[in-house]
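Following up on my earlier thread - several people asked me to post the actual chain instead of describing it. Fair enough. Here it is, all 147 residues.
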Amino acid sequence: MILFLSFSVIIFTLLVQGGTLRWLIRWLNLPPDGSENREENIAHLAAAEAALKVLNQSIPTGEECAELVPQLRAVYEHRVQYYQTAGAATNHLPEARFFATSNALRLEILHVQREAIIRLRDQGIISNSVLRRLERYIDFEEIRLAD
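Reply from S.P.:
Thanks for posting it. Predicted structure:
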């Protein structure tokens, strides 16, 4: 008898309380806490600052690097600014608007590039394997910009 009651209580708890939990959360209209977004911003910021530290400390020599290092430094400085403003939850700052607009424009450019290479494949100028390779690059860029 004790075994039957224990089993009944466990089943009742799982079915009734577990089944109504989703409705209860919807009814309470609880907002997401945003802690994962904050943690992600902290991680992005730390990564960008580490990249800047490397670029500022060890500058490689060579003609190619003379142009590359300042460009990379500018990219990571912009990332630091972006994630600092994202962490402060101030999306109304000009930097945050600039990055949102920049990402939207870059995504539109990638979309147009994808259409262009598909047209080239349809016209027989490039093969399917070349198309897949180029689309993979575009996919990676879209994923990078979507975050």
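The helical segments are 2-28, 35-57, 63-87, 94-122, 128-146. That should answer part of your original question.
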